[in-house]
Fold this sequence. Notes:
Blueprint: H1 26-49, H2 56-76, H3 94-111, H4 123-138, H5 144-147, H6 151-174, H7 181-209, H8 212-242, H9 247-272, E1 281-284, E2 293-296
Antiparallel strand pairs: 1-2
Amino acid sequence: MSEEFEDAPGMRHLGLAPWLQTAWDMRAAGNFMGGGTGTGLLIFTSLGAFGGIHSPILILAGLALVGLGLFSVFLEIGRPLRALNVLLGGKRSWMTREAMVAGVLFPLGLATLFYPDLAKLMWIPASAYLYCQARILEAAKGIPTWRSPLILPLTMASGLAEGIGVLLMLAPFALENGAPDWLAGALVAAIAARIFVWMTYRRRMVGGEAPVEAAAVLIRFSMPFTLSGNVIPLALLVGAGLLPEIHSAALAAAGLAVVAGGWALKITIVTKAAQNQGFAINHSPARGAGESGPGFKPGWREGAKKE
Length: 307
């Protein structure tokens, strides 16, 4: 797609057009990367437990990824000693709810190392944690690319796909018989869901729901993400099914590509396509006895809804 976007001439110097937020950087993106991938891994490890699959390696890997994500957020806090204050906002903050779910997720995960049957329950707090992460972005109403209702299914679909990807990479080392056959099918479904939601999300952002600079970032990112993070993994999964001699290697490569694509998606949305709302004037003020003029919304496509 080759849409061209031009900022409203002469408006940038006035400070009215949207500008890229800087409060959330790579450390914030790291929370969504580690948390999404880790919970996705724990969800499918838990589902595998119903089929008799149990691996402490997979459980620990999932918890480690979630922990790294939370540590990334800790590094971003200006006053780390006040980090526990996050637990005080349960009625209004999805970040607080995320932390509360983590208080269930980690003890339960560690308990599965001694009582393997508990792994069948891991999908519950892991799913809740992934949901909380998606709602954190959706609740940031000042950033158009985050507040979209589609950010919820996009974040969750990507987290599930990434979790399966890590599972496929670790299966040769963590599971005696390698990855179960149903896992490749689950990855196909997760990739299909992710790319469908992504294309819908991108079309809406480019269509006027995001500032022109954010839309331009998404356009540039779309083709590499679609091919490298989704189409190529699907091709590798087909190759794994057709060529037994490369089965394990192709599955691992597909998993790696899916994870890399998902992490790139989160970095892009959180740090590169995160322009804020900017300012808009519904009607230019009247001067003297004259009439008011037309409104304007610098940095947005002409005709974009004023908010």
